[in-house]
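Duplicate of earlier report; Transposase input re-posted below.
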Amino acid sequence: MTQAAARIAPALSILAARKELASSQDMEVHHMERSGFTEEQIRHALKQATLGSPISDICMRMGVSEATFHSWKVHYDGLASYELKLLNRLENECNRLERLIAILALNKVILQDTLGAKE
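Output:
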């Protein structure tokens, strides 16, 4: 392993450890894959279940698994539209900042290597 790679490895492992810690403490926000359903369609399906329609029937009509339906329920239930937009915006900002931290950590290592090589 080169000196630069050895110095970059801790920065990458810090990011990996942070994600592992967050998931072990249930603090990580789970990102849902984008489906072919709009927020309104998902909310309508959740409302049908609240009104008494069997979940299995709703899932069959929509062509999704019950696990998907329950993940929708966890994600959408009780959140107003503006809260969902805020949540999505905050998730995007968090992801952007995590990428920025990784880039800055790598830049720091590169600069330290460059300065160390000049001395």
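The chain has two domains: 1-29+79-119, 37-78.

Merging into the original ticket.
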